[in-house]
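Work through what follows:
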Amino acid sequence: MAKKYSDGREEFHVEKGDPVGMIAAQSMGEPGTQMVLRAFHLAGIESTISTSGLPRIAELVDAKKSPATPITYVYLEKSINKDLEKVVALMKKINEVRMSTIMRHAPMENFGKGLIKISLSGQELESEQLTAKQVASKLAKELEVEAYEKEGAIYINTHTKDAKKIRALSTKISKMVISGIEGAGKTTVQKDKNTGEFYIIAAGSNIESIINVDGVDKSRLTTNDVFAIYRLFGIEAARNSIIKELNQTLKEQKISVDERHLMLIADSMTSSGSIKGVGRHGLSGQKNSVLARAAYEETVKHLIHAAAFGEIDPMEGVTENILVGKQIPIGTGSVKLGIKTEQPKKK
């Protein structure tokens, strides 16, 4: 039912008893079956492939804790966002560099002398604008060990001959972040063709740390990681992010779904104050109705649990009423009529 305004706007009203959830599910499910399973390469980051199509939709509605390919868009303050040199300098502060990236091979361990030797790649060091001395200093500070540089390699004196402790330290070194922000991933600078400003794309989603970097525009920082947005900005921002990501994924596939259906899905997923998927570990598995839960998945488990704890089914939903052959509480079934059998008194 639509109400039209003089300026051309339309306002839609839902009639009482309309099965809005079912319509939203159909609106998402039907085009979902036609989606092409494909992935596209993000310009500027060869190593990053952004998940799209049906896998991305499934990732969002199942409320996966982290996306398969996280991406963060870092917009900068007006004072620096058109100065390429300053933007590149800021990018290097964010860019995550791990020891595994700058090492030639795995650390060499000398258990007899208690030494660990790390051979560094000169090309990678130059690319990341680091020196062997800087790396040695960082390792010594972070690990609280004796580390020094000699002929392009780094030697670490563990002061122990315990093979287990040396191997554990060696493994830890390989995973260490030596420069930039942990979880930010590889970064690249892009230019907005419309505004002419530069911005940074990071192949990670640690926005909790990125937001504290001087020069970052906090009001425009965004990521495709819905849970990262939830942790930093709250549940309302996460709800808006789910809508935006679903809408964007569908548009990439040239599929048009009314945003109201996406809003209803996002509202259902976030109404409890946390993000819940639509599957058996989320909305479907936490319904009040025993029969509705059993009809979705893990039927025997739900029925045994209900019998053991004496659960009562209020029979207020659609699924459970269909199961037992009762009229469903939507459409005409949502209205109850009463008839007065008494005859009116004649005057």
Summary: The domain at 97-179 is CATH 3.30.1360.140 (Gyrase A; domain 2). The two ends are 44 Å apart (CA to CA).
